[in-house]
UniProtKB/TrEMBL annotation:
Pfam families in the cross-refs: PIRT
PANTHER family: PHOSPHOINOSITIDE-INTERACTING PROTEIN, PHOSPHOINOSITIDE-INTERACTING PROTEIN FAMILY MEMBER
InterPro entries: PIRT
This protein's name: PIRT protein
One of the record's GO molecular function terms: phosphatidylinositol bisphosphate binding
Compositionally biased region (Polar residues): 20-29
Keyword annotations: Membrane, Transmembrane, Transmembrane helix
Topology within the bilayer: Multi-pass membrane protein
Biased composition (Basic and acidic residues): 7-16
Segments of this protein annotated with the region Disordered: 1-29
Annotated transmembrane regions: 54-77, 89-109
Length: 132
């Protein structure tokens, strides 16, 4: 029979299994989840819901316009033409990427809102029938 190697310090032992299980596991899991809880029914304004995609959209549009200006400068200015021709498409592509990400993000949020409303409706139906 093999004996497991003993650690030099007795404090490095793993704790017994009864110490690992706590009675608060369910509540801490719900509290630590990043998604909104189905149980809370606080209504949020449109700005609170859509502010991140709107910011991404506006930054993307600004960077895209900045890239357009830089490319147009390469047409009008003759000195440092290579710098404008290299950096202009980079700003155009970055701005377009942010613009598209913001435009795609908005329908995803709308779909999540509809799913959340359905789940809240089903949850209220469950509580109505099972709490009688």
């Amino acid at each position: 029979m093999e004996m497991p190697p003993k650690s030099p310090d007795e404090s490095e032992r793993s704790p017994p299994s009864r110490e690992l299980i706590t009675s608060h596991t369910g509540s801490t899991l719900c509290m630590s989840s990043r998604s909104e809880s189905v149980w809370t029914s606080t209504s949020r304004s449109k700005w609170e819901i859509y502010h991140k995609p709107v910011i991404v959209l506006s930054v993307g549009a600004a960077v895209f316009l900045f890239g357009t200006v830089i490319i147009s400068l390469s047409c009008f200015l003759k000195d440092k033409k290579n710098i404008y021709k290299m950096s202009g498409p980079a700003f155009l592509s970055l701005g377009l990427m942010l613009l598209v990400c913001g435009l795609v993000w908005i329908p995803i949020i709308r779909k999540k809102q509809k799913q959340r409303q359905k789940s809240q409706f089903l949850q209220s139906l469950k509580s109505f029938f099972f709490n009688r």
